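Pasting two entries for a bug report.
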Amino acid sequence: MPTPRLGLVYDFRNPASSGISNPDFYAAIIEQVAWLDGLGLEQVWFTEHHFVDDGYLPSWVPVAGAMAARTKHVRFSTDICLLPFHNPLRLAEDLAVLDNISGGRVEIGIGMGYAPHEFRGFGFPLAQRVSRTEEGLEVLRRCFTGERFSFAGKRYAFEDVVIRPGYVQAGGPPLWVAAMSEAGARRAARYQAHLLPQGPRAEVLDPWRAAVAAEGRDPAQHRVGVIRPTLVTDDPERDWPPVRDSERYRMALYIQFHREGGRGDGLGRYRDEARIPQTWIVGDVEHCARELAGFIREYGLTDVVGWAVPPGLHPEAMNESLEAYVGQVIPRVHALLDTGASRDEESGECSATE
């Protein structure tokens, strides 16, 4: 199995109630990542949404470029980049530039999107999300070969193109695909991608592993990544309430998206006990490390990232927790995984919907 990696994910949501200007907010986060890179942060992921009042990150590529120029070690990826809203050829060129700026530290996690207002905003129906995603994946894979190609599909047509500058990483940036269902799991396997499972293990993770094995490949040689946030604190009663309130605010947007799409409030998906958990882990260094190590072992994960800055909080408000997470929890998780230490029986999970 590939070496596990832990890190952080940023969505850059900055509601007006935070009192922080967007330029200052972006500057503070970029500074935070540069600082954490020096402490040993292993990876940073970005999410993507569009036309959201609080500025939910709509364009992750320039942010990744700014961070790549300020860091030396941390790797960058997405959970997720909404492929239907990107011309895949232009995205491949952006990734080539990022790969060169970062010295080969960029990856890409792809998803289809589901919020109706985003598809209306970009001017095409939600029903096209599958075809745009699958054709986009096909184009990206051809771009990553570094060879000249042509492509003619239902949504895209490209003639005699080759991506320049060439990628630093042989075969291009590692490709991930998000899946919320068995169909999505099979899609990830078909495109030989790493997996971002966003649903129950039996409906996503197990079918993906079976599909990969059926194609003659070893699932254990692929990466599997999940967002699992962590708050490192010696005083949960003091530090958890503001984070919990921010998390409730975060979830309200996803509830809105689900309702717009006629899927109810979507909370059943988050509360489903069969789902790979994404609830917060809250506690001291040892507790958080044991919970994360046990979580990684239980689901066979390789990559786990936590929310860095809950919406409405100043980035600096999370610095104490993030410093402990990067400087103490991550090394302790690696040590526990190396020794196979048993999982702490105390769960300590805190749900945003409590």
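Entry 2 (this is the one that rendered wrong in the viewer):
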Amino acid sequence: MPKPIALVTGASSGIGRATAQGLARAGFAVIAAARRLDRLQELAEQNPGVTPRQVDLSDVDQVENFCAEIIGYDEPVGVLVNNAGYSWRGVVEAAPMAPLLRMYQVNVFALLRLTQAVLPGMRARRQGRIVNLSSIVGRFTFPGSGPYASTKHAVEAVSDAMRHELLPFGIRVITIRPGPIATEFNDTANEFSAEAAANTPPEYQPVLAAAGAAFGKMFGQIRIPGPEVVAEVIVEAITSDNPKAAYAVGPFSDELLPLRAKLDDDDWLEGMNQRFGLAGLKV
């Protein structure tokens, strides 16, 4: 049987690009969507079966136009990989609303809207795969990652609900929880977070210094893999007859996710405060 159309968002770089390549190699007709058309065109030239589609998911009108286009396809989308997303970093008190709204638009609202656009076609065929890129911080939160982690907590909640709602139609919803991956993600996060960092009240500096030292120690002890390791898991889940509800991949995923599931809130808080040098810290 011919493979269905697969739509991958955030396909111009990182995990999205590697996933589009992997699905094309597996025989899927891939629609690669992202803001940067030049990168998408390069991807399509190098990978037969990939069709570039420029769309800025932070722009509500562009998202609506793209959804109208998807609904009008003669052949419905059978696989949706909601990969697009980015991070704003900083303490909650210093989080400006405009950048947070933009992040929620990309990470959550566009994901919801695109999912709504593909579901009628999937329901009609009684089959489909929806893959939502979460994160290990979709299940817990590091200091300084609260705003970004909240978007991934939202993705987890939506995914959990849809698993119940869509299973009777033969549609499987899969969550991917990567740890740190070597992509442009970190540079983008630093770019978007620079203004807020400058406006953070100085009283937070001891907190951020302690957390930063702990992060440095944690990351100094690991090797950060490239996006291909996540893309391989995504393609495997899409092509599996019986995919798992969620897949964890990358550093810290095999350590912290089981630990969070095991500990109650107070024990988790105590352990993380110890890890980040915040236990007993008084400012």
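Dev reply: Rendering is fixed now. As a check, the viewer should reflect this: The chain has a mean pLDDT of 95.
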